[in-house]
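Comment thread on ticket #2218

A.B. wrote:
> Attaching the input chain for the structure job we discussed in standup.
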Amino acid sequence: MQANKMKVLFLTLVLGLVCSSQEIPAEPHHSQISGEWRTHYIASSNTDKTGENGPFNVYLRSIKFNDKGDSLVFHFFVKNNGECTESSVSGRRIANNVYVAEYAGANQFHFILVSDDGLIVNTENVDDEGNRTRLIGLLGKEDEVDDHDLERFLEEVRKLGIPEENIVDFTKGGRASRVT
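C.D. wrote:
> Ran it. Output below, let me know if you need it in another format.
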């Protein structure tokens, strides 16, 4: 009987460890996220989505939550054929730190607040053809990228199995900043 209890305890421990390694990070308070942000890096499992003229080659400007924190608006510019177009996308919270939005298909995402000035957005996009793409972006409040924030971003990229050569660097000029 004692051996069975030990097996159950061991299996419970293993199951707990497996489940905890796949949890969504704790939800940062929406007041910590709401505000001005800039795109620093975006990694994608499908580089067509983040490359030149891709729908996720976006220059974020802000994330604004409503007072309750259950809906938000991303304000950004998209560069297409050398021209910047202003856009915004609304999303809503469906669970603790899980949000959905419609943009270039259906998107589900969550936030990882890595510092006062660094935010990671982890997204799964399913486009109109049913293709799934994993995207992860590092956003910052300043133009400079903090080394700790960048390392945490690269850690998340590796966890998703996205090759580092699929990272687009938005910190080196070419920023879209106005409607043309």
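A.B. wrote:
> Thanks. Noting for the ticket: Residues 36 and 62 are 4 Å apart (CA to CA).
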